[in-house]
Design a protein that fits this description.
The chain is an alpha+beta fold. It is built from two helices and four strands, in the order αβββαβ.
């Protein structure tokens, strides 16, 4: 005599576990969730790289402004500008320094430092899509310098 089967069914037709269809549906859902998580992770890495470049550009612009304030003989005159390229490892950035005379207050000069770089650069030389390769980012910081009358 056969032992009784729990649930009262035939032991050959009653089976435990998941069907192939259930396993495939679960794998599709898992794949979609993992894709979304990886996409969010990649976006976070890109945002961190952009912020790193912006921070670096702000520090370099401040340094160039201090250099401009202290070196009166080698800076551009009012209405002029000069371009510069940074040494490695920051050679992916290039900049422009311009000096303008304030029209309302003649003793004030406006010094603008503009730094530009290719989107996705920053020491990384990877593959990029053509749309990203052509995109550039820039940061412009303006400073005011008062020229005190010589007595």
């Amino acid at each position: 005599m056969k032992p009784p089967v729990p649930g009262g069914g035939n032991p050959l037709t009653t089976r435990g576990g998941f069907s192939l269809l259930e396993v495939m549906v679960a794998l599709v859902i898992l794949g979609i969730l993992l894709t979304a998580v990886l996409h969010a992770f990649a976006q976070g890495i890109r945002a961190q790289a952009r912020m790193q470049n912006v921070t670096l550009a702000a520090l370099i612009a401040s340094e160039k402004a201090l250099e401009t304030f202290s070196d009166l003989e080698n800076r551009p005159g009012p209405g002029e500008s000069d371009e510069f390229v940074l040494p490695p490892p920051h050679d992916f950035m290039h900049g422009t320094r311009s000096v303008e005379q304030n029209e309302m207050i003649p003793n004030i000069q406006e010094i603008a430092i503009t730094l530009s770089w290719e989107s996705g650069s920053g020491g990384r030389r990877g593959r990029r899509s053509s749309q990203q390769a052509n995109a550039s980012q820039s940061l412009e910081i303006c400073f005011l310098q008062a020229q005190l009358p010589v007595q």
